[in-house]
Amino acid sequence: MTEWLGYLEHATPELLGVYTANPGKGGYTIFGELTGMQGMPWCTTFVFAVHPAKERLGKPCPGVVTLARRMILRGRWRKRGYTPRYGDLIFLRNGPSGLIEHCGIVEDADGEYVASIDGNTVDPSGVFRPEQGGAVARRVRRRDDPKIVGYAEIKTGGIINV
After folding, report:
1. CA–CA separation, 96 vs 69, rounded Å?
2. How do residues 42-54 score in pLDDT, each as one tens digit?
3. Residues 89, 91, 92, 93, Cα dihedral to 10°
């Protein structure tokens, strides 16, 4: 999943495999192409396309709320106090609504911070602004960040790849 760091959302469906070609807020990504969910808000399509144990997530579904419900029904949901591991999913709210609006793949965590690789997120370099579209980026958050709603435990058996 780290190999996708720096990938930018595309304005049109051309050159989807080229990380920074045709950037813009069009909703087009290689992840939408791979999952058959082109044009959707793409944090979820990123997760389904690149997760190291994607077979454990089930068939790709549109929307982060649907994915969170699926994880709850499968008994994989963990509250904020849980210490996530490589491959777990992180679910966040972006605004004051309290609703789940974003997800990413946990890369690493300790007692204080959690690092994730997120699709359709803010480019941390600031070069590609949110109004232009999203990027694949590493996000590091404090574990007590109120935006974190919870996690989905996905046992990958993988090794942290940072």
Report:
1. 20
2. 999 999 999 999 9
3. 160
Q: Which two tokens stand for residue 47?
A: 């997760």
In a domain, 105, yes or no: yes
The domain total for the chain is 1
φ/ψ of residue 66, rounded to 5: -65, -40
Q: Is 135 helix (H, G, I), strand (E, B) or coil?
A: strand
Residue 7 amino acid letter: Y
The answer to whether residues 10 and 23 touch, using CB atoms and an 8 Å cutoff, is yes
d(CA 12, CA 93): 28
> Tokens for 111?
């007692």
Taking residue 5's Cβ as centre, other Cβ atoms within 10 Å add up to 13
Residue 128 domain-assigned (yes or no): yes
- Could you tell me the pTM of the whole model? 0.92
**Residue 80: domain span:** 2-152
pLDDT in tens, 119-148: 999 877 777 777 788 999 999 999 999 999
